[in-house]
Amino acid sequence: MLGKLSDKVLGLVLREERAGACVPEHGNYCYCRSGKKYYMNCYGICTKSTKGC
Fold first, then answer.
1. pTM here?
2. Which residues of 7-42 are buried (b: 16+ CB within 10 A; e: fewer)?
3. Record's superkingdom (predicted)?
4. Residue whose C-alpha is closest to residue 47's, from 20, 12, 21
5. For 12-53, what is each residue's pLDDT tens digit?
6. Among 21, 24, 29, 25, residue whose Cα is nearest residue 53
7. Torsion sign, CA atoms 16, 22, 26, 27
């Protein structure tokens, strides 16, 4: 649990997808905005995909 929390905090700081361990939600669909889909990255942060809605 502490490892997942530290990955999320690190993700907020780095804003990159270089994760040591993925969160269980990794790859899950978040939402659609401005014609782009957003998915969970390894840090549990929704990131923009190249795929359209």
1. 0.54
2. beebbeeeeeeebeebbeeeeeebeeeeeebbbbbb
3. Bacteria
4. 12
5. 655 554 545 678 888 899 999 999 999 998 888 899 988 888
6. 29
7. positive
